[in-house]
Amino acid sequence: MRGRHFLFVISAVFIMAVILAAVIALGHQYQSQPKPTPLTSVSSNSSNTVSFCLDGSMNSTAMRIAIDNGITCYRTDISLSQGAINFVSNASKAGAQYLGILDYDTVGAQPSRYGCLSGCNWTLNTWNASVANAVADYPSIHEWEIYNEPLIGEFVSGYENGSAINYFNMIKSAYYIIKSRDPNATIVCFGGAQMFPGSTVAVEYAFYQQVWSYGAYKYCNAISLHAYSQPYYNFSQQVGSGYTLRQVFNFTLNLYENLTGKPIWITETGIPSNNWTTGINMSEQNQASYLTQDFRFFASYPFVKRIYWFHLVGYNGKNEDYGLLNMTTLQPKPAWYSFISFLHNSS
């Protein structure tokens, strides 16, 4: 999962001030924020038109299963390797429509939670050249996300160093490069700002406020948020200070909508179906139940236009499996059928 790691340190004094202000604001605003109207289903008669999507897989068999079942909306990191280019091209011909993430993979860096391992010194010029190459190499992609989780330490490298002005410059230059070739392309910003409660939300919101104040609103067509909640898997569970997960997500969602006024895409959300690294007992049934609550909740907001489940097939080698298909057999899990139900009821 991308959303569970330590933040890159910006400034200790600044962070503490932001957290204090945010905690005070939370206490006042939670109670005044309206709760979303619960949905019994999401259909074409809903007041909101929302697309249900997946973080895709580089497994051609899994992608064929998903596409054959009517899933066409995907998200993927953009690498300039020929293998990745060919895979996305073939999947696109079969019906997949991708949101491409321009990030460390695109510039050829290898960041990690232990520090950047290679390709670490890339510059804004490197970024610009890589974006231009990506747009040329992936002609079937018309939606682009600017970096993945730019404040998460394990993804920081090169010019993307946790600086708000640097991230703004990346958005601005990528916008002009992409639009020059594809004027109708969609540019998605913020790279998955975190929605989980606590200091993470306060620090990230302050960062994106800065990015927005520099003028990012002129170069962003939509905003990306990441909605993870481990170890909580029920929207009625209290997550601290007496607030439920539903209330926390409601508050954070409205915070970003009020800041930007842009359509919001939840580009990652989900829980694993197995025991994850802290030992919390998850299950396939809990995963399916969470997906149903998750999709109903976010689809009830008129400004939420995309919801991407993380993801089609789980990671091997980690004690977590977020996938809708079993990572070994590719057999559907209960959450797969929940996803398909939403997909068919929304069309």
What does this structure look like?
Helix content is 40%, strand content 15%. The two termini are 29 Å apart. The protein has helices at residues 12-32, 60-68, 82-94, 104-107, 124-137, 164-181, 199-213, 245-260, 284-299, 334-345; strands at residues 51-55, 73-77, 97-102, 143-146, 186-194, 222-227, 238-240, 243-244, 264-269, 304-309. The chain has one domain (50-345): Glycosidases (TIM Barrel). It has an eight-stranded parallel β-barrel, surrounded by six helices. It has a two-stranded antiparallel ribbon with strand order 7-8. Residues 3-46 have low confidence and may be disordered. With 347 residues, the chain is α/β, with parallel strands linked by helices.
SSE inventory with pairings:
Layout lengths: L11 H21 L18 E5 L4 H9 L4 E5 L4 H13 L2 E6 L1 H4 L16 H14 L5 E4 L17 H18 L4 E9 L4 H15 L8 E6 L10 E3 L2 E2 H16 L3 E6 L14 H16 L4 E6 L24 H12 L2
Parallel strand pairs: 1-2, 1-10, 2-3, 3-4, 4-5, 5-6, 6-9, 9-10
Antiparallel strand pairs: 7-8
